[in-house]
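Inputs:
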Amino acid sequence: MKPPVLRCRHVKKRYGTFTALEDLSLEVYEGEIFALLGPNGAGKSTLIHCITGLAKQSEGSIEVLGFDTVHDFRTTRRLVGLVPQEINYDPFFTPLESLMIQMGLMGVEPSRERAETLLKTFALDEKRDAYTRTLSGGMKRRLLVAKSLVHEPRLLFLDEPTAGVDVELRRELWQEVEELRAAGTTIVLTTHYIEEAEQLADRIGILHKGELLLVESRESLLERHGGRSLEDIYLELIRKADGRHAA
Amino acid sequence: MSTIALKTLFLKEVRRFSKVWLQTVLSPLVTTSLYFLVFGVALGSRLREISGVPYIQFVVPGLVMMTMVRDSFLNTSSSLFQSKINGTITDILVAPIGALEMLLAYVGAAMLRAFLVGTLVYLVALWFTWFPLHHAGWSLFFAVFVTATLALLGMVAALWAEKFDHLAIFPNFVLLPLAFLGGVFYSIDLLPEPWYTVSLFNPLLYMVNGLRYGFLGVADVSPVASAGVVLASFLVLVGVASALLRSGYNLRS
Protein backbone atom coordinates (compact mmCIF):
# COMPACT_ATOMS: atom_id res chain seq x y z
CA MET A 1 0.00 0.00 0.00
CA LYS A 2 1.21 3.50 -0.81
CA PRO A 3 2.30 5.71 2.13
CA PRO A 4 -0.40 7.82 3.76
CA VAL A 5 -0.70 11.37 2.52
CA LEU A 6 -2.92 12.18 5.48
CA ARG A 7 -2.70 10.66 8.92
CA CYS A 8 -5.06 11.67 11.73
CA ARG A 9 -4.33 10.19 15.13
CA HIS A 10 -6.85 10.27 17.97
CA VAL A 11 -8.20 13.64 16.87
CA LYS A 12 -10.73 15.20 19.19
CA LYS A 13 -12.47 18.49 18.67
CA ARG A 14 -14.65 20.07 21.31
CA TYR A 15 -16.63 23.29 21.23
CA GLY A 16 -17.27 23.95 24.90
CA THR A 17 -19.15 20.87 26.12
CA PHE A 18 -20.07 19.74 22.60
CA THR A 19 -17.82 17.09 21.07
CA ALA A 20 -17.61 17.51 17.29
CA LEU A 21 -14.95 14.84 16.73
CA GLU A 22 -14.38 11.90 19.06
CA ASP A 23 -11.01 10.15 19.01
CA LEU A 24 -10.85 10.00 15.22
CA SER A 25 -8.03 8.13 13.52
CA LEU A 26 -7.81 7.97 9.77
CA GLU A 27 -5.30 7.48 6.99
CA VAL A 28 -5.73 8.58 3.38
CA TYR A 29 -3.36 7.21 0.78
CA GLU A 30 -1.62 8.76 -2.17
CA GLY A 31 -3.62 8.99 -5.38
CA GLU A 32 -6.93 7.84 -3.95
CA ILE A 33 -10.32 9.49 -3.81
CA PHE A 34 -11.64 9.18 -0.30
CA ALA A 35 -15.29 10.02 0.26
CA LEU A 36 -16.37 11.07 3.71
CA LEU A 37 -20.08 10.55 4.18
CA GLY A 38 -22.27 11.54 7.06
CA PRO A 39 -25.43 13.42 7.95
CA ASN A 40 -25.45 17.14 8.73
CA GLY A 41 -23.45 17.86 11.87
CA ALA A 42 -21.53 14.57 11.66
CA GLY A 43 -18.21 16.43 11.86
CA LYS A 44 -17.10 16.17 8.23
CA SER A 45 -16.39 19.88 7.80
CA THR A 46 -14.89 20.09 11.28
CA LEU A 47 -12.37 17.41 10.36
CA ILE A 48 -11.50 19.19 7.11
CA HIS A 49 -11.18 22.48 8.98
CA CYS A 50 -8.77 20.91 11.48
CA ILE A 51 -6.61 19.55 8.65
CA THR A 52 -6.59 22.72 6.55
CA GLY A 53 -6.02 25.21 9.36
CA LEU A 54 -9.49 26.71 9.67
CA ALA A 55 -9.85 25.08 13.08
CA LYS A 56 -7.57 23.59 15.69
CA GLN A 57 -8.10 20.13 17.09
CA SER A 58 -8.47 19.94 20.86
CA GLU A 59 -6.41 16.74 21.07
CA GLY A 60 -4.52 14.39 18.79
CA SER A 61 -2.30 15.00 15.81
CA ILE A 62 -2.73 15.42 12.07
CA GLU A 63 0.06 14.88 9.57
CA VAL A 64 0.19 15.65 5.86
CA LEU A 65 2.98 13.72 4.13
CA GLY A 66 4.63 13.33 7.53
CA PHE A 67 4.44 17.03 8.47
CA ASP A 68 2.43 18.08 11.50
CA THR A 69 -0.36 20.52 10.64
CA VAL A 70 0.23 22.57 13.80
CA HIS A 71 4.01 22.68 14.08
CA ASP A 72 4.80 22.58 10.34
CA PHE A 73 1.73 24.50 9.21
CA ARG A 74 3.59 26.42 6.51
CA THR A 75 4.65 23.15 4.85
CA THR A 76 1.33 21.34 5.22
CA ARG A 77 -0.73 24.26 3.91
CA ARG A 78 1.41 24.36 0.75
CA LEU A 79 0.57 20.69 0.24
CA VAL A 80 -3.15 21.04 0.82
CA GLY A 81 -5.94 22.67 -1.19
CA LEU A 82 -9.48 23.34 -0.02
CA VAL A 83 -12.71 23.97 -1.86
CA PRO A 84 -14.91 25.26 0.97
CA GLN A 85 -18.54 24.34 1.34
CA GLU A 86 -19.79 27.93 1.26
CA ILE A 87 -19.28 29.98 -1.89
CA ASN A 88 -17.17 33.01 -1.10
CA TYR A 89 -15.75 35.66 -3.34
CA ASP A 90 -14.01 38.97 -2.99
CA PRO A 91 -16.22 41.58 -4.67
CA PHE A 92 -13.23 43.82 -5.34
CA PHE A 93 -11.45 41.44 -7.70
CA THR A 94 -11.94 39.68 -11.03
CA PRO A 95 -11.42 35.92 -11.50
CA LEU A 96 -8.00 36.55 -13.03
CA GLU A 97 -6.96 38.79 -10.14
CA SER A 98 -8.42 36.36 -7.60
CA LEU A 99 -6.33 33.50 -8.95
CA MET A 100 -3.15 35.61 -9.09
CA ILE A 101 -3.73 36.76 -5.52
CA GLN A 102 -4.38 33.23 -4.29
CA MET A 103 -1.11 32.05 -5.87
CA GLY A 104 0.80 34.70 -3.97
CA LEU A 105 -1.00 33.92 -0.71
CA MET A 106 -0.06 30.26 -1.13
CA GLY A 107 3.58 31.32 -1.43
CA VAL A 108 3.83 30.73 -5.18
CA GLU A 109 5.11 33.53 -7.43
CA PRO A 110 1.93 34.79 -9.18
CA SER A 111 1.91 33.64 -12.80
CA ARG A 112 -0.53 35.08 -15.30
CA GLU A 113 0.06 32.11 -17.57
CA ARG A 114 -0.91 29.62 -14.85
CA ALA A 115 -3.95 31.72 -13.93
CA GLU A 116 -5.10 31.84 -17.54
CA THR A 117 -4.65 28.08 -17.92
CA LEU A 118 -6.84 27.51 -14.87
CA LEU A 119 -9.45 29.95 -16.17
CA LYS A 120 -9.55 28.04 -19.43
CA THR A 121 -9.72 24.66 -17.69
CA PHE A 122 -12.73 25.78 -15.68
CA ALA A 123 -14.41 27.62 -18.57
CA LEU A 124 -14.00 30.99 -16.93
CA ASP A 125 -11.73 32.59 -19.51
CA GLU A 126 -14.53 34.70 -20.96
CA LYS A 127 -15.20 36.13 -17.50
CA ARG A 128 -11.57 36.66 -16.56
CA ASP A 129 -11.95 40.45 -16.24
CA ALA A 130 -15.54 40.57 -14.94
CA TYR A 131 -16.19 41.38 -11.32
CA THR A 132 -16.62 38.11 -9.47
CA ARG A 133 -19.97 39.22 -8.06
CA THR A 134 -21.41 39.17 -11.62
CA LEU A 135 -20.59 35.46 -12.10
CA SER A 136 -23.32 32.83 -11.90
CA GLY A 137 -23.42 30.45 -8.91
CA GLY A 138 -21.87 27.67 -10.98
CA MET A 139 -19.07 29.92 -12.19
CA LYS A 140 -18.34 31.07 -8.65
CA ARG A 141 -18.08 27.44 -7.55
CA ARG A 142 -15.75 26.65 -10.46
CA LEU A 143 -13.64 29.64 -9.47
CA LEU A 144 -13.39 28.21 -5.95
CA VAL A 145 -12.09 24.94 -7.38
CA ALA A 146 -9.60 26.82 -9.59
CA LYS A 147 -8.41 28.83 -6.56
CA SER A 148 -7.82 25.66 -4.59
CA LEU A 149 -5.50 24.39 -7.33
CA VAL A 150 -3.28 27.44 -7.90
CA HIS A 151 -0.41 25.91 -5.92
CA GLU A 152 -0.85 22.38 -7.32
CA PRO A 153 -1.71 20.73 -3.98
CA ARG A 154 -0.88 17.08 -3.34
CA LEU A 155 -4.00 16.68 -1.20
CA LEU A 156 -7.26 18.36 -2.17
CA PHE A 157 -10.33 18.67 0.03
CA LEU A 158 -13.68 19.16 -1.63
CA ASP A 159 -16.21 20.02 1.05
CA GLU A 160 -19.59 19.28 -0.50
CA PRO A 161 -18.55 20.74 -3.85
CA THR A 162 -21.77 19.78 -5.57
CA ALA A 163 -24.24 21.03 -2.95
CA GLY A 164 -26.91 23.05 -4.72
CA VAL A 165 -25.25 22.53 -8.09
CA ASP A 166 -27.20 21.55 -11.22
CA VAL A 167 -26.70 18.15 -12.84
CA GLU A 168 -24.57 19.47 -15.68
CA LEU A 169 -22.09 21.25 -13.44
CA ARG A 170 -22.05 18.28 -11.06
CA ARG A 171 -20.99 16.02 -13.94
CA GLU A 172 -18.32 18.56 -14.98
CA LEU A 173 -16.96 18.66 -11.46
CA TRP A 174 -16.87 14.86 -11.25
CA GLN A 175 -14.87 14.82 -14.46
CA GLU A 176 -12.48 17.39 -13.00
CA VAL A 177 -12.06 15.26 -9.90
CA GLU A 178 -11.24 12.21 -12.03
CA GLU A 179 -8.72 14.21 -14.04
CA LEU A 180 -7.07 15.56 -10.89
CA ARG A 181 -6.74 12.06 -9.49
CA ALA A 182 -5.28 10.89 -12.79
CA ALA A 183 -2.73 13.70 -12.47
CA GLY A 184 -1.70 12.34 -9.04
CA THR A 185 -3.70 14.49 -6.65
CA THR A 186 -5.13 12.76 -3.60
CA ILE A 187 -8.73 13.81 -3.03
CA VAL A 188 -10.90 13.85 0.05
CA LEU A 189 -14.52 14.52 -0.76
CA THR A 190 -17.42 15.14 1.55
CA THR A 191 -20.86 14.81 0.11
CA HIS A 192 -24.52 14.17 0.85
CA TYR A 193 -24.97 12.58 -2.55
CA ILE A 194 -24.33 8.88 -1.99
CA GLU A 195 -24.22 8.21 -5.73
CA GLU A 196 -21.35 10.67 -5.95
CA ALA A 197 -19.32 8.58 -3.54
CA GLU A 198 -20.43 5.40 -5.27
CA GLN A 199 -19.23 6.68 -8.61
CA LEU A 200 -16.01 8.43 -7.60
CA ALA A 201 -14.56 7.05 -4.39
CA ASP A 202 -11.93 4.38 -3.97
CA ARG A 203 -12.56 4.24 -0.24
CA ILE A 204 -15.43 5.44 1.86
CA GLY A 205 -15.56 6.69 5.43
CA ILE A 206 -18.83 7.15 7.30
CA LEU A 207 -18.82 9.71 10.05
CA HIS A 208 -21.66 10.11 12.52
CA LYS A 209 -21.83 12.38 15.56
CA GLY A 210 -18.06 12.83 15.48
CA GLU A 211 -17.30 9.10 15.34
CA LEU A 212 -15.89 7.30 12.34
CA LEU A 213 -18.26 4.33 11.97
CA LEU A 214 -16.54 2.71 9.04
CA VAL A 215 -13.62 3.06 6.64
CA GLU A 216 -13.53 0.59 3.80
CA SER A 217 -12.86 0.36 0.10
CA ARG A 218 -15.96 0.93 -1.97
CA GLU A 219 -15.60 -2.43 -3.69
CA SER A 220 -15.26 -4.50 -0.53
CA LEU A 221 -18.05 -2.56 1.18
CA LEU A 222 -20.48 -3.28 -1.65
CA GLU A 223 -19.28 -6.87 -1.95
CA ARG A 224 -19.59 -7.51 1.79
CA HIS A 225 -23.18 -6.31 1.74
CA GLY A 226 -24.17 -8.60 -1.07
CA GLY A 227 -24.96 -6.18 -3.82
CA ARG A 228 -27.02 -3.75 -1.74
CA SER A 229 -26.76 -0.12 -2.70
CA LEU A 230 -24.35 2.15 -0.87
CA GLU A 231 -27.31 4.28 0.17
CA ASP A 232 -28.94 1.30 1.93
CA ILE A 233 -25.69 0.38 3.65
CA TYR A 234 -25.16 3.98 4.74
CA LEU A 235 -28.69 4.36 6.15
CA GLU A 236 -28.44 1.07 8.04
CA LEU A 237 -25.17 2.10 9.66
CA ILE A 238 -26.52 5.49 10.65
CA ARG A 239 -29.70 3.94 12.12
CA LYS A 240 -27.68 1.40 14.09
CA ALA A 241 -25.42 4.14 15.43
CA ASP A 242 -28.46 6.23 16.38
CA GLY A 243 -29.87 3.20 18.18
CA ARG A 244 -26.64 2.77 20.14
CA HIS A 245 -26.61 6.47 21.07
CA ALA A 246 -30.27 6.30 22.18
CA ALA A 247 -29.55 3.23 24.30
CA MET B 1 8.18 34.12 6.82
CA SER B 2 6.79 33.96 3.30
CA THR B 3 7.85 37.16 1.52
CA ILE B 4 5.71 36.30 -1.54
CA ALA B 5 2.62 35.93 0.64
CA LEU B 6 3.46 39.11 2.55
CA LYS B 7 3.92 41.11 -0.66
CA THR B 8 0.74 39.65 -2.17
CA LEU B 9 -1.39 40.39 0.88
CA PHE B 10 0.01 43.92 1.14
CA LEU B 11 -0.63 44.64 -2.56
CA LYS B 12 -4.10 43.07 -2.32
CA GLU B 13 -4.97 45.46 0.49
CA VAL B 14 -3.55 48.44 -1.40
CA ARG B 15 -5.53 47.49 -4.52
CA ARG B 16 -8.65 47.03 -2.42
CA PHE B 17 -8.61 50.64 -1.18
CA SER B 18 -7.37 51.95 -4.54
CA LYS B 19 -10.36 50.40 -6.33
CA VAL B 20 -12.74 52.42 -4.17
CA TRP B 21 -10.61 55.58 -4.04
CA LEU B 22 -13.64 57.87 -4.07
CA GLN B 23 -14.64 56.43 -0.73
CA THR B 24 -11.22 55.76 0.75
CA VAL B 25 -9.16 58.73 -0.45
CA LEU B 26 -11.33 61.49 -1.87
CA SER B 27 -14.12 61.31 0.72
CA PRO B 28 -11.86 61.83 3.78
CA LEU B 29 -9.96 64.52 1.87
CA VAL B 30 -13.17 66.46 1.18
CA THR B 31 -14.48 66.00 4.73
CA THR B 32 -11.27 67.17 6.35
CA SER B 33 -10.89 70.04 3.91
CA LEU B 34 -14.38 71.19 4.92
CA TYR B 35 -13.34 71.11 8.58
CA PHE B 36 -10.34 73.17 7.60
CA LEU B 37 -12.43 75.69 5.66
CA VAL B 38 -14.96 76.09 8.50
CA PHE B 39 -12.71 76.01 11.55
CA GLY B 40 -9.47 77.24 10.04
CA VAL B 41 -10.43 79.74 7.39
CA ALA B 42 -13.91 81.00 8.36
CA LEU B 43 -13.73 80.91 12.18
CA GLY B 44 -9.95 81.19 12.26
CA SER B 45 -10.02 84.67 10.80
CA ARG B 46 -11.99 85.77 13.91
CA LEU B 47 -9.67 84.07 16.36
CA ARG B 48 -6.32 85.31 17.49
CA GLU B 49 -3.18 83.25 17.79
CA ILE B 50 -3.06 80.11 19.89
CA SER B 51 0.27 79.10 21.44
CA GLY B 52 1.93 81.83 19.39
CA VAL B 53 0.77 80.64 15.96
CA PRO B 54 -2.15 81.80 13.81
CA TYR B 55 -5.27 79.69 14.47
CA ILE B 56 -5.52 78.65 10.81
CA GLN B 57 -2.08 77.02 11.13
CA PHE B 58 -2.79 75.70 14.62
CA VAL B 59 -5.59 73.41 13.37
CA VAL B 60 -3.64 71.92 10.43
CA PRO B 61 -1.67 69.20 12.30
CA GLY B 62 -4.75 68.23 14.30
CA LEU B 63 -6.83 67.79 11.15
CA VAL B 64 -4.05 65.86 9.41
CA MET B 65 -3.69 63.61 12.45
CA MET B 66 -7.46 63.15 12.82
CA THR B 67 -7.63 62.02 9.19
CA MET B 68 -4.69 59.65 9.53
CA VAL B 69 -6.10 58.17 12.74
CA ARG B 70 -9.48 57.53 11.16
CA ASP B 71 -8.18 56.19 7.85
CA SER B 72 -5.58 53.83 9.26
CA PHE B 73 -8.20 52.42 11.65
CA LEU B 74 -10.87 52.11 8.97
CA ASN B 75 -8.60 50.41 6.44
CA THR B 76 -7.68 47.43 8.60
CA SER B 77 -10.98 47.18 10.44
CA SER B 78 -13.22 47.27 7.38
CA SER B 79 -11.05 45.01 5.24
CA LEU B 80 -10.51 42.32 7.87
CA PHE B 81 -14.11 42.43 9.10
CA GLN B 82 -15.56 42.25 5.59
CA SER B 83 -13.39 39.25 4.77
CA LYS B 84 -14.65 37.59 7.95
CA ILE B 85 -18.25 38.29 6.97
CA ASN B 86 -18.02 37.29 3.30
CA GLY B 87 -15.87 34.25 4.03
CA THR B 88 -12.84 35.26 1.96
CA ILE B 89 -10.73 35.17 5.12
CA THR B 90 -10.64 31.42 4.37
CA ASP B 91 -8.24 32.19 1.49
CA ILE B 92 -5.75 33.59 4.00
CA LEU B 93 -6.37 31.08 6.78
CA VAL B 94 -5.64 28.05 4.59
CA ALA B 95 -2.49 29.70 3.20
CA PRO B 96 0.98 29.28 4.69
CA ILE B 97 0.76 32.72 6.26
CA GLY B 98 1.70 33.41 9.85
CA ALA B 99 0.53 36.13 12.22
CA LEU B 100 3.57 38.28 11.37
CA GLU B 101 2.83 38.43 7.65
CA MET B 102 -0.82 39.24 8.31
CA LEU B 103 0.14 41.96 10.73
CA LEU B 104 2.74 43.55 8.44
CA ALA B 105 0.58 43.41 5.31
CA TYR B 106 -2.62 44.80 6.85
CA VAL B 107 -0.84 47.46 8.89
CA GLY B 108 1.47 48.44 6.01
CA ALA B 109 -1.44 48.96 3.59
CA ALA B 110 -3.41 50.95 6.17
CA MET B 111 -0.39 53.17 6.82
CA LEU B 112 0.02 53.79 3.11
CA ARG B 113 -3.62 54.89 2.79
CA ALA B 114 -3.36 57.10 5.87
CA PHE B 115 -0.13 58.68 4.60
CA LEU B 116 -1.68 59.30 1.21
CA VAL B 117 -4.78 61.00 2.60
CA GLY B 118 -2.81 62.81 5.33
CA THR B 119 -0.38 64.20 2.76
CA LEU B 120 -3.21 65.40 0.54
CA VAL B 121 -4.91 67.14 3.48
CA TYR B 122 -1.58 68.73 4.39
CA LEU B 123 -1.10 69.97 0.81
CA VAL B 124 -4.62 71.44 0.76
CA ALA B 125 -3.85 73.22 4.03
CA LEU B 126 -0.57 74.59 2.66
CA TRP B 127 -2.47 76.05 -0.28
CA PHE B 128 -4.47 78.16 2.22
CA THR B 129 -1.69 78.89 4.69
CA TRP B 130 1.89 78.07 3.84
CA PHE B 131 4.25 77.39 6.73
CA PRO B 132 7.62 75.64 6.94
CA LEU B 133 7.79 72.24 8.61
CA HIS B 134 9.37 72.82 12.02
CA HIS B 135 10.76 69.34 12.62
CA ALA B 136 10.49 66.72 9.86
CA GLY B 137 11.89 63.95 12.08
CA TRP B 138 9.24 64.32 14.80
CA SER B 139 6.54 64.71 12.16
CA LEU B 140 7.57 61.46 10.50
CA PHE B 141 7.92 59.66 13.83
CA PHE B 142 4.39 60.54 14.92
CA ALA B 143 2.90 59.87 11.50
CA VAL B 144 4.50 56.42 11.34
CA PHE B 145 3.77 55.23 14.86
CA VAL B 146 0.30 56.72 15.19
CA THR B 147 -0.91 55.23 11.89
CA ALA B 148 0.64 51.87 12.79
CA THR B 149 -1.00 51.99 16.23
CA LEU B 150 -4.44 52.81 14.84
CA ALA B 151 -4.10 50.19 12.10
CA LEU B 152 -3.37 47.65 14.84
CA LEU B 153 -6.38 48.86 16.81
CA GLY B 154 -8.45 48.40 13.64
CA MET B 155 -7.27 44.79 13.39
CA VAL B 156 -8.12 44.12 17.03
CA ALA B 157 -11.57 45.69 16.55
CA ALA B 158 -12.22 43.62 13.40
CA LEU B 159 -11.18 40.42 15.14
CA TRP B 160 -13.41 41.18 18.14
CA ALA B 161 -16.45 42.46 16.21
CA GLU B 162 -19.21 40.05 15.30
CA LYS B 163 -21.50 42.54 13.58
CA PHE B 164 -21.16 45.88 11.84
CA ASP B 165 -22.56 47.71 14.88
CA HIS B 166 -19.65 46.44 16.97
CA LEU B 167 -17.20 47.86 14.48
CA ALA B 168 -18.97 51.23 14.32
CA ILE B 169 -18.44 51.75 18.06
CA PHE B 170 -14.77 52.62 17.57
CA PRO B 171 -14.81 55.40 14.95
CA ASN B 172 -18.06 56.98 16.16
CA PHE B 173 -17.96 56.63 19.92
CA VAL B 174 -14.26 56.36 20.69
CA LEU B 175 -11.98 57.89 18.06
CA LEU B 176 -14.06 60.89 16.98
CA PRO B 177 -14.82 62.13 20.51
CA LEU B 178 -11.25 61.52 21.65
CA ALA B 179 -9.91 63.37 18.60
CA PHE B 180 -12.24 66.35 19.14
CA LEU B 181 -11.38 66.41 22.85
CA GLY B 182 -7.71 65.80 22.11
CA GLY B 183 -6.96 69.37 21.15
CA VAL B 184 -7.50 69.22 17.39
CA PHE B 185 -9.25 72.62 17.46
CA TYR B 186 -7.96 74.12 20.71
CA SER B 187 -5.14 74.12 23.20
CA ILE B 188 -5.92 72.33 26.46
CA ASP B 189 -4.25 75.29 28.21
CA LEU B 190 -7.58 77.05 27.60
CA LEU B 191 -9.46 74.45 29.65
CA PRO B 192 -10.32 74.97 33.32
CA GLU B 193 -9.71 72.23 35.88
CA PRO B 194 -10.68 69.40 36.10
CA TRP B 195 -10.98 69.22 32.29
CA TYR B 196 -7.34 70.10 31.78
CA THR B 197 -6.24 67.13 33.92
CA VAL B 198 -8.89 64.85 32.40
CA SER B 199 -7.56 65.71 28.93
CA LEU B 200 -4.13 64.42 29.91
CA PHE B 201 -5.60 60.91 30.04
CA ASN B 202 -6.65 61.10 26.41
CA PRO B 203 -4.09 59.31 24.20
CA LEU B 204 -5.28 61.20 21.11
CA LEU B 205 -4.07 64.41 22.81
CA TYR B 206 -0.49 63.13 22.61
CA MET B 207 -0.88 62.03 19.00
CA VAL B 208 -2.28 65.39 17.91
CA ASN B 209 0.23 67.39 19.92
CA GLY B 210 3.12 65.23 18.78
CA LEU B 211 2.39 66.06 15.15
CA ARG B 212 1.68 69.68 16.07
CA TYR B 213 5.14 69.94 17.56
CA GLY B 214 6.63 68.40 14.41
CA PHE B 215 4.70 70.75 12.14
CA LEU B 216 4.77 73.99 14.13
CA GLY B 217 7.16 73.59 17.06
CA VAL B 218 4.40 74.23 19.61
CA ALA B 219 2.44 71.73 21.69
CA ASP B 220 0.51 71.39 24.95
CA VAL B 221 2.72 68.49 26.01
CA SER B 222 6.38 67.82 25.30
CA PRO B 223 7.20 65.75 22.20
CA VAL B 224 9.09 63.28 24.40
CA ALA B 225 5.99 62.67 26.55
CA SER B 226 3.89 62.34 23.39
CA ALA B 227 6.39 59.90 21.89
CA GLY B 228 6.31 57.87 25.09
CA VAL B 229 2.52 57.55 25.05
CA VAL B 230 2.45 56.75 21.32
CA LEU B 231 5.20 54.13 21.60
CA ALA B 232 3.57 52.53 24.63
CA SER B 233 0.22 52.36 22.81
CA PHE B 234 1.95 50.90 19.77
CA LEU B 235 3.73 48.20 21.76
CA VAL B 236 0.59 47.24 23.68
CA LEU B 237 -1.39 46.92 20.46
CA VAL B 238 1.38 44.97 18.71
CA GLY B 239 1.22 42.53 21.62
CA VAL B 240 -2.58 42.30 21.65
CA ALA B 241 -2.99 41.99 17.86
CA SER B 242 -0.18 39.40 17.61
CA ALA B 243 -1.62 37.34 20.43
CA LEU B 244 -5.11 37.41 18.91
CA LEU B 245 -3.83 36.45 15.45
CA ARG B 246 -1.64 33.66 16.82
CA SER B 247 -4.49 32.25 18.86
CA GLY B 248 -6.85 32.48 15.89
CA TYR B 249 -9.32 34.47 18.00
CA ASN B 250 -12.64 34.69 16.13
CA LEU B 251 -10.87 33.45 13.00
CA ARG B 252 -10.11 29.78 13.52
CA SER B 253 -12.75 27.80 15.39
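The CA atoms of residues 111 and 147 of chain B lie 5 Å apart. Flag for discussion at group meeting.
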